[in-house]
Amino acid sequence: MNRIQELFNQKKGNILNVYCTAGFPQLESTVPVMKALQDSGVDMIELGMPYSDPLADGPVIQASSTKALANGMTIATLFEQLRGFRQQVYVPVILMGYMNPVLQYGFEKFCQHAADAPIDGLILPDLPEYEFETEYGPIIQRYGLNFIFLVTPETSEERIRKLDSLSTGFLYAVSSSSTTGKDKDMNAVNDFLQRLQNMKLKNPVLVGFGIKDKPTFQQACEHANGAIIGTAFIKAIENTADVEGATKKFITDIKS
Amino acid sequence: MTTTTYQQPNAQGYYGKFGGAFIPEMLHRNVEELRSKYLDIIYDPAFQKEFRSLLHDYAGRPTPLYLAQRLSKQYGTTIYLKREDLCHTGAHKVNNTIGQILLAERLGKKRIIAETGAGQHGVATATVCALKGVECIVYMGEKDIERQAPNVARMKMLGATVIPATSGSKTLKDATNEAIRDWINNPVDTHYIIGSVVGPHPYPDMVARFQSVISEEIRWQLKEKTGSELPTHVLACVGGGSNAAGAFYHFLEEPSVQLVAVEASGHGVHSGLSAATTQLGKPGVLHGSKSLVMQTEDGQVVEPHSISAGLDYPGIGPLHAHLYDSGRGVFLSATDEQALQAAFNLAKQEGIIPALESSHALASLEFLNPEKPKQSEAPIPPKALFTKDSVVVVCLSGRGDKDMATYMKAMEMK
Ligand SMILES: Cc1ncc(COP(=O)(O)O)c(C=O)c1O
Question: For atom 4 of ligand 1, which residue has the closest CA?
């Protein structure tokens, strides 16, 4: 059992997962930001590996990736930064990124180094289920990593069940078909989440995209196990000298 | 796995090792809708009737297959030009946009988005949207908007909205990213008209089928002129690879026909300013398919360079990656300078001003000339060289009107 399962065993609701970009705002920010998130009471961290062409992300997260790349961030550098990080960060950490840099690093080597770090799970939004089942899934499983699929309001019930069966850790509900950082009609989101709740899925559900503050977080948690905040957090730390202070303030405002 | 021919990818969209659909879940419904319906729609007789009649009456097809006598004499062999430059809007791009607008109509889509580099695909998309009275949004890199002002004006006059792509390197690959993001954010009413044989399955196959009219015509035109449907060589430039896919299509399974794809090597393949994807790229995933991609060791996509905005793309379609990998295609490259020379040569020899993209295909005639072959940066298999009995077809993918500013500058420098 890894940290993700442990977390969901202990805590069924109001789980707060926060996204941050590795190497942002400074190259060396990766671990200090994660530590500050954890110390502020975040339950889980989604750590983004920057990519030049992040299709599923909006302008704010892409800009943070561009900055991180300019800072010199690479997957190899990230794994160096993560050496020994478990002495400070004990919450579950999921690596989020795109296929191309992972393929260049070497898919199996990547899984091995992620498991060594140790990282708990992976989100690769442009790895579709066909490729997962035929080629990459067995490698991910061999290294004991969770793999989290996304579902959207446009995903059919049959397909949701399929993706739920392939996912380990949790299922990532994208609150509407959209890139990150767009405002959402929360009523439509609610209908979707209720539909998921009624399906009695195998995995817990975390809601992402469009969650930005206390009210949206609370609303998302009504029909799901928790929520993921990305763009709003990146905005909160992008123009500040005191990243740790800004992180604490941002998370405290949500959890208060 | 079903067997793949060169013409047809397998059920998952793979040509050999390349292809597939590497898309986030947010695009799944749209892409799946397209995948499950495109063949039925395209091969419906009513669709074919409308498609064929628009190609004929609106786009001006068939385009001539012209025996270029002075060019033939210059290179000591027989050279035909497939005159895609005479298509409405000035390039082959309209073959694809006519097909896709008819498809979008049958899918009930009310809004069209597209990406463009040089602006040719943007113009061809804006044109068919005007024809059908459909809203049209074209994403174009901020840098390309500056360097291709006349095409931006054409798109606007045709009623399209041109949105600058300001992320990343602000050129074609970023315009493509923005178009894909728009599609993610508008999952129900929007169709994305991709401009080349790139993107997730079924786009590469679908665009190749629409462009295959080029080689369909070459076959019967050549038969009329020479008594044989088969040339010895077909030459075409490759950005994403749609004019090449169209010119090669009906010869893919004819092993006697040499298929020569010409990429843009900018200042030289290894100059750091190049777009010669097969020579510089490694297998990777870009814009939804696995193909060859120009990238750093860390898997970040690099910005290519070519004097021709239409070839300034860091990938190629998966069909071409497979033609390269399997050895079925011969991949050459021409520099900015060689393309310019070829453009001026065609203008003087034949009275035709070609697009800069097409000039790369013309430039490769120099490498294949048996009398005095020029040094090519890419290796040339001996079988690809011409003899005096060769019958060579060059796909003249577009006309040079859009490139006059570049040509004028080149004349001033002389
Ligand atoms: C005249 C012309 N030829 C070729 C191309 C390159 O595209 P493709 O490789 O898809 O044919 C373009 C693209 O803008 C073009 O305008």
Answer: B357
